[in-house]
Design brief:
The chain has about 270 residues and is mostly helical. The protein has two domains: about 120 residues, no CATH class; about 130 residues, no CATH class. It contains 14 helices and no strands. Helix 1 packs antiparallel against helix 3, helix 1 packs antiparallel against helix 6 and helix 3 packs antiparallel against helix 5. About 25% of the residues are buried. This is DUF3307 domain-containing protein. Pfam families: DUF3307. Keywords: Membrane, Transmembrane, Transmembrane helix. InterPro entries: Phage_phiKZ_Orf197.
Length: about 270
């Protein structure tokens, strides 16, 4: 029998190739417009199933196992893509991620049944299992909870020139969102900048690449404060600086604690 990852990786490779490189945009548009009447939907599903014959042959699967593999992937891919095509806003990022997660879960399920070395006990007792859980917790805390903490702190420093007082900070998750709106950007874009910044800082902190953290902060400062200087609003500049420093400090502390918990030596 196969090792779990030895079985899963070839299946994922075929999925990525068929879903992103062998599917023209015309097929995607046809599925969205004609749903189950689109012949492209059937072509795409069959392509996914037939392409899996290659890894099945490489992995040494029997005829019966190969037929089951092809049938399961073809049917599930058809159902998932049909459901996504029938949704009113099926092209949204959230639905795309959900669709891909469902496809991957099917492949994980298949790889699990193709292998014997993966059991619940083996997973729980794996030497890196709780390391993964601990790191995941660090990222979860660095995103939304950290935004709430930053917003709570910024409530104490209302924008004097905005005329909105504390309501400005209260209505946003962090200073990036506020500054984006104030300088003509979009609040959602600023919020995303904050999330990406903290993900990168946490990643580099755990990896011990502290110089990269300084580069990220410097690059962000150049773009952000350059825009704010044009507005000649000192209170906004200080507001964003406080939020940015809070973001860096909190995320660095989280990363340091995670590193210590993992037994990584702090340089």
């Amino acid at each position: 029998m196969l090792n779990f990852f030895n079985a899963l990786i070839p299946l994922l490779v075929i999925h990525v190739i068929c879903d992103f490189y062998l599917q023209p945009k015309s097929w995607v548009d046809a599925k969205r417009e004609s749903t189950y009447c689109a012949i492209e939907l059937y072509f795409h599903s069959v392509l996914h199933g037939v392409a899996l014959i290659i890894p099945a042959f490489i992995l040494g699967l029997g005829v019966h196992s190969t037929v089951c593999l092809v049938a399961i992937v073809m049917v599930t891919h058809y159902l998932f893509d049909l459901g996504k095509a029938m949704l009113p806003n099926g092209e949204k990022l959230g639905y795309f991620i959900l669709d891909q997660c469902l496809h991957v879960l099917v492949l994980v399920f298949i790889a699990y049944h193709m292998s014997t070395n993966l059991t619940l006990d083996a997973l729980l007792n794996h030497k890196h299992f709780f390391d993964v859980i601990f790191i995941s917790l660090g990222y979860l805390i660095a995103l939304k909870p950290t935004s709430i903490i930053i917003a709570s702190v910024l409530k104490r420093f209302p924008l004097s020139s905005s005329g909105q007082g504390e309501g400005v900070a209260a209505s946003e998750t962090d200073s990036d969102a506020v500054s984006s709106a104030e300088v003509g950007g979009i609040a959602a874009g600023g919020e995303l900048i904050g999330y990406l910044e903290r993900v990168l800082i946490l990643t580099f902190t755990i990896a011990g690449s502290y110089a990269a953290i300084g580069f990220i902060f410097a690059a962000k400062s150049i773009f952000r404060f350059g825009e704010l200087n044009k507005s000649e609003d000192r209170s906004m500049t200080e507001y964003v600086l406080i939020g940015s420093l809070l973001s860096v400090v909190i995320t660095t502390v989280i990363g340091t604690l995670v590193s210590l918990g993992l037994g990584i030596k702090i340089k």
